[in-house]
Amino acid sequence: MFDWFVGQLDGRLEDHLEEYVVQILINEFNEGAFRQERSRLFKERLARMDAIVDQWMREYMGGEWALQVFALLSRDESNEQELKEMCQKYWNLAAVRRVAVEECMGRKDYALALAILDESLELDREMPGLVVNYSQQKKEIYLLTGDKVSYVKQLWALVLEHDRGDFASY
Fold this sequence. Notes:
By secondary structure, the protein is mostly helical. The protein is built from 9 helices and no strands.
């Protein structure tokens, strides 16, 4: 069955059906014999993403594969160095930076989370949906940390630049 599901990833399926197959590969086949093969498959798919010309598709699928590789690697502490190297290699993917922000928030390292969000705002400035998300995350961190001046400044940035017309931010 594992080989059959892997064989379905050769591009013959519609995108939404391929996502189902990927989810099955992610959620099932957790036995030891499949873990290594699944890890190899996910790393191989992630490496292929560099060749995709369509930026949106490369970002979306690359992010999905990166998240799966990270999830597999993070289950075992002995993979910490490999995890760091992959994070550096795929830092250009918004999904990788999103995970880094989540980890910072979990550790209450708000300064590093803000730095990653600032970098993400710069890297993804051509992607309005991501920019709004980053700006909202910054606003929430400022609120959480009690930095009222930065909070108000970020609200203005949302209302005037990033998410014009959003009544909730206003």
